[in-house]
Structure prediction request, 285 residues.
Amino acid sequence: MNAPDRLKPHGTIGDLLVARGVLQPEHINRIIERQHAHNEPFGEAAIALNLLQRSDLDAALSTQFNYGYLLDGDTHLSRELVTAFKPFSRAAEEMRALRGQIMLRWLNDDRRRRVLCVVSQRPQDGRSFIAANLAVVFSQQGQRTLLIDANLRQPRQDQLFHTGHSAGLAGILAGRAGLEVIEAVPGLPGLRVLPAGATPPNPQELVGMASFGELLQTVSQQFDVVLIDTPPCEQYADAEIIAARAGAALVVARKNRSPMRGVSELARRLQDTGVAVVGSILNHH
Prediction:
């Protein structure tokens, strides 16, 4: 795996906007005059002159700084990836704040502390939504990021990222595939997804195999961040087994839905088995 380009500007914003066809070359001088007269950025000056839409400026800035960002008309990924489609929204800002807390509390240069699973007590608590959007914001920061869908019961990441019908994680653990089934995400440099693959008859046995731990060791050497989506803990023991392999977990609860007693009990069980509970998040979405 090659490391993605770190955030670095290339080309002027005016050049990019003209190349995209959202500004005409003859507009540039007017904008620069406004920019100097009001001491404001080029893009803001263009918006003030009604020559540019905010969405076009955001898209151009994302290109200038190699920032993964998807346009509204993009249909190859799910709109649930709000951090990709609306990276300047409140929801995306909350995800970036969560990213910062995780980096402070867990992730560092030790490859044993690059793997984090996302768990919750019940179905539809938002584990997959949180895991996917968190993976996007880590990649937007320039981190080599891998999202593994280890929910071999009812996987969701293939619906969010529209991945191909590959053998996926189940195929790797069954010895039928290798790391070539890890997929790049168009428009989001640095982000890779390992889908769950076909639903196996023995999901708990597969994630309990030594080969799953070996896989995590391998990918932790190739990526800066490895996030793992899991099944609900209330229904299956898979997530706690996965968490033990990963060594760390983020606990998700859903506002007005998840019983706090159950969430606290889940966190306690994880800690009792040696899993570092890096934090918890209340999902409002």
Notes: The beta strands are 115-120, 145-149, 183-184, 191-194, 225-229, 248-254, 276-283. Residues 1-10 have pLDDT under 50 and may be disordered.
